[in-house]
Structures are given as C-alpha cells and as structure tokens.
C-alpha cells in the first residue's frame, strides 16, 4: 500500500465521534477498498477538556485551532461535521482552494452558499462531497449526481426530516395533537430541546435546495424555497385526511415546469400536505426518510432509510471519504458542479397545487352558492364538497377539495372566504398532493 491518506476532522460531537469509531473499527477494510490506510491527522474541537467517552484516538490529536489544522502540509482531506454557516465556510473554502478535498454534512451552508464552495473546489482542483447533508445514510445525492446524470429528472418529492415525520406519524396513529406528539418526540430523543429548525421546516428547506440543485442542474438556495412548518397541523386535520383515505406528511417538492412566457422553470417548496395512502411515501413512518424521484427514462424511483443519527450519518461521511481518497490516489477529482441549466426558480404563487379547505359557515340557504361564487371568481375549480354539522352548534362545516390551480389563486380564494359574513372561520387549509 501507498502512504496513508490523512484526515482533518472538524467537530467531534455525535456524528464526529461515530466517524472516529467507524474509522477505527473498519480500518483494515477501508484501507483495502482505498488502496491506502486512512489516518486522522487531527481533530478540531471547541473545548479540549470535554469527556468524549472511550474514543479510540490519541488525545494529543485534539486541537482548538481548525484553520491551523487545515493548513498543515500533512492533511489531505478535510471532514467537516460542525455545521452552521461561519466559521465553517471560511474553513472549507481555505481547504478547497488549497487543493484539499472536503467531505461535509453541512446542509445549512450548502443550501445558503453552496456556490462559494463549488467555486473554491473548481479553483483548487479538489473534490467536494456531501452525501450526508440530506438524508443520512440513504444513498441519494450520488445517484442524482452520477447514476441519473444521463436522464432527465422531472420531479423530486421527499420526506427529509425525521422529527416531523415522527410527529405526524404519531398524530395519525394515536389521534394526539401537535403539542402531545412533539413532547413524545422530545422524550424519545427525536426532537431537539429547541425544535424550531425541524417543525418550522428550515431543515427540510435546506435539504430541498440541495436536492433541487442536483436534480435540475441549477443553483437553488434555501431562500428560493417556499417554506411552511407543521405547527398548525391539528388532530382534526389528521382525522379529515384519514376520512379521505390520506395521511399528512411534511413534503419537500421540487418540480420542473414552464411559465407563461414558455421558459422552463423549477419550483421548490416545503409544506405539510395530504397524500393518498396508496402513495409510496404514505407508508414512511416513525423517524424514517424517503425520497421519490420521477425521471423520464428511469421512471419512478424511491430511496428509503434512516435519514439522521450519528451512525447513519457517519456511514455516509465515510462513504464520501473513501471516494475522495481513491480519487486522490488516482490523481483525479470528480466532475465539478453541474449548474448549466440555470432554470428560472418559479415563485410559490405560480406553483400548481390543490387545496383542502375546511370552513365553519352559517347553516342557512344560499351559503354554498356564495362560497362557490368565490372559487369561480378566482378561476378555481371545486373537485368535491362535503357538508356536515360544525361541532354540534348552529353552524355547518364545509370541506372543499379543489382541482389543480395556481397557488396564488388558491390563496386569494381563501383570503376572500375569510372576509365573508357567512364564513365563521376558515378552520384548516392544507395542500393535497399525489392525486388524492
């Protein structure tokens, strides 16, 4: 075998610790696959004195100077599992410009400013790999970037946040409300002490931007993604979905389209939606992730597995490390970013979708006609209407499902409905996906 490939590890939390353990446990196999052993040159951490259990690593390797570690001549590959925008961006740009390949799990940085990293990689002739940034151990980004590179992807629909999927699955299984399901998720360790990034859709939006960038050869940032979380989803919404033969999932959806001027576009959005129980994503429960890809030649593909956690994420990180180490030994690097298509990112208002709307209305003649008139004025066609008593009071409940229409027209319809005297309240608005 040749000289070792030496790694600088930035971060040694849950994921970083599992990377160290896997490097130790699988050292012989990894060396055989690569053609050279992997060695840790150093580990950058915030605090040197922290108890890190029984990690199989020399304590002398720890440092609080990440830039100094990156700049060392004996470092070949930089592995970043710290997260956040800065100082991670500064560290990785330094490494890439110096020709040192980077493996990162940093979805937030890639979604906000992946262009800077890709440009630095091209400048330095280095590899930038980030399989672990979207769906943990699920092999997803490399199939999009390599296996499907000869095909045309039309749509990507995914469940990419395990915390919200656990919460919605629990609500569906038990009838619990959002607060109760979130409490259970926190007790079981699926939700952070501050769950905002998950339940408000920020985490999923970052992943949606990365998926769309790869699938459609277009630079898409988190700012381009329409985002809604699950905090407003109620037990009544879940029951209504069940009555329709549906379930509710937080979906990331990226799809090709054509605007009014005939230009090809891409729309990228994250929001809760009803999907029929027959859809492949409907059966994805607990904290699992799954991504459903629709391509012209390959047809429909689904990638499924654990999308988070120390060991699954570390598995994806090491897969990338093996790839970049082999490239380094061969004297090559992977193809650079593919953003040639440069599609126009379509605003949410132009996205075509369907709505499920629940209204509490006055129970008197002419109400349905007035409500239908609002839909007609906004050129939104009604697919189904269901009427029933509203909680035992004197009012009635109307549940309306629309046909496909521009989201702006649907939102304007709901806005006008809220202003009608006969409408006591708009109790629920959810999008419907997947032909329900």
From TrEMBL:
Q: Which cofactor does it need?
A: a metal cation
Chain coiled-coil ranges: none
Q: Which reaction does it catalyse?
A: L-homoserine + NAD(+) = L-aspartate 4-semialdehyde + NADH + H(+); L-homoserine + NADP(+) = L-aspartate 4-semialdehyde + NADPH + H(+)
Please state every residue range assigned to the domain named ACT.
356-431
List keywords of the entry alphabetically: Amino-acid biosynthesis, Methionine biosynthesis, NADP, Oxidoreductase, Sodium, Threonine biosynthesis
Q: Which Pfam families match?
A: ACT, Homoserine_dh, NAD_binding_3
- Tell me its family: Belongs to the homoserine dehydrogenase family.
Protein name per its UniProtKB record: Homoserine dehydrogenase
Q: What is the lineage of its organism?
A: Bacteria, Bacillati, Actinomycetota, Actinomycetes, Micromonosporales
């Amino acid at each position: 075998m040749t000289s070792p490939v030496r790694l600088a590890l930035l971060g040694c939390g849950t994921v970083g610790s599992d990377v160290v353990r896997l490097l130790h446990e699988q050292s012989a196999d990894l060396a055989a696959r690569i053609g050279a052993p992997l060695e840790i040159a150093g580990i950058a951490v915030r605090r040197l004195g922290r108890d890190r259990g029984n990690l199989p690593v020399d304590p002398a390797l720890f440092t609080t100077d990440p830039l100094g570690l990156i700049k060392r001549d004996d470092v070949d590959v930089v592995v970043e599992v710290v997260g956040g925008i800065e100082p991670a961006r500064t560290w990785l740009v330094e490494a890439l410009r110096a020709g040192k390949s980077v493996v990162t799990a940093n979805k937030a940085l890639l979604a906000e400013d992946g262009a800077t990293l890709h440009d630095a990689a091209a400048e330095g002739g280095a590899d930038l790999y980030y399989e672990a940034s979207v769906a943990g151990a699920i092999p997803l980004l490399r199939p999009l970037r390599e296996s499907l590179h000869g095909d045309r992807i039309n749509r990507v629909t995914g469940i990419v946040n395990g915390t919200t999927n656990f919460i919605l699955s629990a609500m569906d299984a038990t009838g619990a409300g959002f607060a109760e399901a979130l409490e259970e998720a926190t007790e079981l360790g699926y939700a952070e002490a501050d769950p905002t990034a998950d339940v408000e859709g920020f985490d999923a939006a970052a992943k949606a931007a990365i998926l769309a960038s790869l699938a459609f050869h277009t630079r898409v940032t988190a700012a381009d993604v329409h985002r809604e979380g699950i905090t407003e989803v109620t037990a009544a919404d879940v029951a209504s979905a069940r009555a329709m033969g549906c379930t509710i999932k937080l979906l990331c959806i990226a799809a090709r389209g054509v605007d009014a001027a005939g230009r090809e576009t891409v729309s990228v959005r994250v929001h809760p939606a009803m999907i029929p129980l027959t859809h492949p994503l409907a059966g994805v429960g607990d904290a699992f992730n799954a991504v459903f890809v629709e391509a012209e030649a390959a047809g429909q593909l689904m990638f499924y597995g654990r999308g988070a956690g120390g060991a699954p994420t570390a598995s994806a990180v090491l897969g990338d490390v093996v790839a970049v180490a082999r490239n380094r030994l061969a004297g090559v690097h992977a193809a650079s970013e593919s953003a040639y298509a440069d599609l126009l990112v379509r605003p949410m208002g132009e996205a075509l979708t369907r709505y499920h709307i629940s209204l509490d209305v006055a129970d008197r003649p002419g109400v349905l006609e007035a409500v239908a008139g609002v839909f007609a004025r906004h050129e939104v066609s009604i697919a189904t209407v269901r009427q029933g008593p509203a909680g035992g009071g004197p009012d009635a409940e109307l549940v309306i499902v629309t046909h496909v229409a521009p989201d702006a027209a649907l939102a304007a319809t709901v806005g006008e409905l809220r202003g009608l005297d006969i409408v006591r309240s708009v109790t629920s608005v959810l999008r419907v996906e997947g032909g329900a």
